[in-house]
UniProtKB/TrEMBL annotation:
SUPFAM superfamilies: Cysteine proteinases (SSF54001), RING/U-box (SSF57850)
Gene3D superfamilies (UniProt xref): Cysteine proteinases (3.90.70.10), Zinc/RING finger domain, C3HC4 (zinc finger) (3.30.40.10)
Protein name (database record): Ubiquitin carboxyl-terminal hydrolase
Reactions catalysed, as given in the entry: Thiol-dependent hydrolysis of ester, thioester, amide, peptide and isopeptide bonds formed by the C-terminal Gly of ubiquitin (a 76-residue protein attached to proteins as an intracellular targeting signal)
GO biological process per UniProt: protein deubiquitination; proteolysis
Gene: USP3
Entries under Pfam families matching the protein: UCH, zf-UBP
Amino acid sequence: MVFHHFLVFATFFWFVLCRSNKSPWVCLTCSSVHCGRYVNGHAKKHYEDAQIPMTNKKTEKQEKVQHTVCMDCSSYSTYCYRCDDFVVNDTKLGLVQKVREHLQNLENSAFTSDRHRKRKLLENSSLNSKLLKVNGSTTALCATGLRNLGNTCFMNAILQSLSNIQQFCCYFKELPAVELRNGKTAGRRTYHTRSQGDNNVSLVEEFRKTLCALWQGSQTAFSPESLFYVVWKIMPNFRGYQQQDAHEFMRYLLDHLHLELQGGFNGVSRSVILQENSNLSASNKCCINGASTVVTAIFGGILQNEVNCLICGTESRKFDPFLDLSLDIPSQFRNKRTKSQESGPMCTLRDCLRSFTDLEELDETELYMCHKCKKKQKSTKKFWIQKLPKVLCLHLKRFHWTAYLRNKVDTYVEFPLRGLDMKCYLLEPENSGPESCLYDLVAVVVHHGSGVGSGHYTAYAAHEGRWFHFNDSTVTLTDEETVGKAKAYILFYVERQAKPGAEKL
């Protein structure tokens, strides 16, 4: 009982005085509270000390002590350093659950509101960037950061970008919550671990919870642990804590959201949920791997791939659905690293789009199998956009393999914040209205560093007319000039609603 009273006091003391964006973690060996799981290596040191060889034979009790654990005071998840995993096991006396209950009682106690008030005062006094001047009045910054769980900036940048695509985000936030457990565990918080089966997790549900936590203004940073461990379950490529490619993660995330939505959600047919959103009409849907979902309705477009045999002139056409377009940076621009460099012309997004859609002669390694000639022949290839998506995602191919390494193309590419005109890349531009081909920028993902396996990801995104910079748990207000100077890796453009006076690329 003394331990629990000390724990309550220590946790309260942390909430009142600590200004960190990291979650408080309590060591369940000695009840010390620190900011983050590895701060000062405190709880981990208990585990390391227990590994020191002993002259006498270890008893069963000593063996159990080696499972040194700590608990996140915000999510109540328990982490074991020996197992290197979040665990759901408890002691025979249920001591871990008792700690959770004490923390929950602390949250619901009479002085909780006073704790939040004091903490807000400390945050507001030290973080002036959290206040905005709008029309002469001061308003609170409602944006919420995402805590880095160990090289998870690639995931955070994508999640923040998607959270600012309003039609996509609102769809998930309006979905009904899913209770993954029943019986004795119904109503309890679910703690995901790597040892659980795939049937116990829902990517759509954890994605929904994460989006709901952002932009509420109730906390400075949110820890997406549950979502991250679901990602570990269903996307083996992203297990571990090494740096990952943000574009690759985005594609995996959208593909798996699409597949899970196709299978129904909380007992409700996916098609029923999709039909309830009147903005996603059948004409806006693009089917990829089966029936349409909100993923394909928002991001789905269609390419026409034309291949012409240079020997007999036979033309082959194929329609390919896409969720994003990967654009090469033309080789003549690859030495121009900054916007301010004077030598040579500036690389623009139009140059990258033109390189993608221009007529290209295939080399010897890509000979086309001509059905008329009955053998592989030299040919040309050209892409047309047959249908534009509601949200156009453009990926600039900054990483290229050389003989042994994957190098980064650090060229600055100029891109418009408003009025990206895609009409000239359409297969039938005459069938499109004057406004239907114009796009406005809503989010940008930037990679800082020299290699895909290193560096850092951040994101810029527009929300209610203001631009924000998302750097893991830190969110700051920025301006259009700063956004325009970024070396974009992924660009998200939203189809413009009919408005006069559009500025073109």
